[in-house]
């Protein structure tokens, strides 16, 4: 499956600029990455990789209204468009191999 990492980076930079214009953003925080399952998704393997990479993971099984989803939270890190996209890309590469796709990110101050 091909994925447009340049578009992902551009969207991260756009969102950061939009948020920065409206708020004083923290220098450090906990990054939350969100993924949804596609066909033949393997949550067990993806969750295992995320945990081995140091993320806290929440798994949400599919229900009648929502697809299966995974939320991964980093440890405290520097927040910037570059650091967010680096984590986003690294996790997206693995997510795609396990049948998940990225659907967004957020953060909270540490």
Q: Would you write up a description of this structure?
A:
With 110 residues, the chain is an alpha+beta fold. The protein has one domain (28-109): Alpha-Beta Plaits (2-Layer Sandwich). 41% of the residues lie in helices and 29% in strands. It is built from 3 helices and 5 strands, in the order αβαβββαβ. Strands 1, 2, 3, 4 and 5 form a 5-stranded antiparallel beta sheet that branches. Helix 1 runs antiparallel to helix 3. The longest helix is centred in the N-terminal third of the chain and has 18 residues, at 5-22. The radius of gyration is 14 Å and the shape is globular. Residues 11-106 form the Regulator of ribonuclease activity B domain.
Approximately how much beta-strand content do the residues carry? 25-35%
CATH superfamily: RraB-like
List low-confidence stretches.
none
The CATH architecture comes to 2-Layer Sandwich
Pfam family, one: RraB
Protein name: Regulator of ribonuclease activity B domain-containing protein
Question: Which terms summarize this structure?
Answer:
single chain, 110 residues, alpha+beta, Alpha-Beta Plaits, 5-stranded antiparallel beta sheet, 3 helices
Quick structural gist:
This protein is α+β, with helices and mostly antiparallel strands. The protein has helices at residues 5-22, 43-52, 81-97, and strands at residues 28-37, 56-60, 69-73, 77-78, 100-109.
What layout of secondary structure does this protein have?
Elements: H1 5-22, E1 28-37, H2 43-52, E2 56-60, E3 69-73, E4 77-78, H3 81-97, E5 100-109
Antiparallel strand pairs: 1-3, 1-4, 1-5, 2-3
Helix pairs in contact: 1-3
């Amino acid at each position: 499956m091909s994925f447009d990492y340049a578009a992902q980076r551009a969207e991260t930079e756009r969102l950061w600029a939009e948020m920065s214009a409206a708020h004083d953003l923290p220098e450090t925080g906990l990054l939350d990455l969100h993924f949804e399952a596609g066909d033949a998704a393997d949550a067990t393997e993806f969750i295992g990789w995320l945990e081995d990479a140091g993320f806290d993971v929440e798994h949400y099984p599919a229900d009648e209204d929502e697809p299966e989803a995974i939320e991964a939270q980093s440890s405290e890190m520097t927040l910037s468009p570059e650091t967010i996209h680096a984590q986003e890309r690294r996790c997206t590469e693995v997510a795609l191999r396990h049948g998940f796709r990225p659907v967004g990110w957020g953060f909270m101050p540490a």
